[in-house]
């Protein structure tokens, strides 16, 4: 069962919204506790009270943002017809996820591998039984495309790089 999502006007909710914006636009290490608190119009004590630490807040919002990403990508994979080209479906899912992350400004929060996580849910989604390493490789390439956009590459160029993969996945 999913954890309660805070009301956006509550201190916890304002912190979560500020964190999504800050961690989406900048790397974790570049965002300070003071900036997060100020953006949410709360004290730093409120951040520690609700999330324990900056990493706790990051993990909370990362989980929510990643879940939204995976929902879209799972939907794209599910929309492919049985017996269709699995490689094309996988490429489609990568592009759906990329477009979502770019549109919502989640470049940094999704461009980095999950901090402190025991598993990588994106890599798991992209895994196939015939090649258990494929998910990790595709997840790394997908994240590299987001980082490239965060560093100034035009989204169309990064998207084209993802499209260049000619995935041949056995059924």
Structure keywords:
171 residues; Arc Repressor Mutant, subunit A; 2 domains; 9 helices; single chain; mainly alpha; elongated; 65% helix
Largest sheet data: none
Report how far apart the termini are: 32 Å
Radius of gyration: 17 Å
> What's the order of the H and E elements?
HHHHHHHHH
Structural class: mainly alpha
The number of strands is 0
Shape: elongated
Unreliable parts: none
Fraction of residues in β-strands: under 5%
Helix content: 55-70%
Count of individual domains: 2
Mean pLDDT: 89
Give the count of helical stretches: 9
Query: Which oligomeric form is depicted?
Result: single chain
Task: Provide structural commentary.
With about 170 residues, the chain is mainly alpha-helical. The chain folds into two domains: about 10-60, Arc Repressor Mutant, subunit A (Orthogonal Bundle); about 65-165, no CATH class. Helices cover about 65% and strands about 0% of the residues. It has nine helices and no strands. The chain has helices spanning about 10-25, 35-40, 45-50, 55-80, 85-105, 105-110, 120-125, 135-150, 155-165. The mean pLDDT is about 90.
Write the layout of secondary structure elements.
Elements: H1 11-25, H2 33-40, H3 44-51, H4 54-78, H5 86-104, H6 107-111, H7 121-126, H8 134-150, H9 155-163
Helix pairs in contact: 1-2, 1-4, 3-4, 4-5, 5-8, 5-9, 8-9
In short:
With 171 residues, this protein is mostly helical.
């Amino acid at each position: 069962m999913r954890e309660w999502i805070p009301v956006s006007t509550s201190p916890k909710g304002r912190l979560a919204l500020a964190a999504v914006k800050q961690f989406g636009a900048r790397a974790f290490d570049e965002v300070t506790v003071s900036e997060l608190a100020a953006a949410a119009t709360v004290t730093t004590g409120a951040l520690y009270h609700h999330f324990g630490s900056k990493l706790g807040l990051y993990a909370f919002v990362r989980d929510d943002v990643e879940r939204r990403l995976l929902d879209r990508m799972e939907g794209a994979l599910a929309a492919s017809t049985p017996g269709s080209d699995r490689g094309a479906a996988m490429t489609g899912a990568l592009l759906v996820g990329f477009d979502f992350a770019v549109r919502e400004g989640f470049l940094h929060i999704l461009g980095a591998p999950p901090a402190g996580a025991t598993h990588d849910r994106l890599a798991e989604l992209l895994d196939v039984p015939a090649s258990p390493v494929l998910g990790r490789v595709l997840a790394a390439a997908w994240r590299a495309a987001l980082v490239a956009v965060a560093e100034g590459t035009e989204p169309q160029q990064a998207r084209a790089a993802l499209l260049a993969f000619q995935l041949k996945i056995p059924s």
